[in-house]
Amino acid sequence: MKYVRYQWNDRTFWGVLEGETIIVLDAAPYRGGKSTGSRLSLENVRLLAPSEPSKIVCVGKNYLEHTAEMHEEVPKVPCLFIKPSTCVNAPFGDVEYPRGSKRMDYEGELAVVIGKLAKSVCAENAADYILGYTILNDVTARDIQKSEGQWTRGKGFDGFAPFGPIVTDEINPERVRIRSYLNGEKRQDGSAGDAIFKIPYLIEFITQSMTLLPGDVVSTGTPAGIGSMMPGDLIEVDIDGIGRIANRIIPTKNF
Question: What is the pTM for the complete model shown?
Answer without folding.
Answer: 0.96
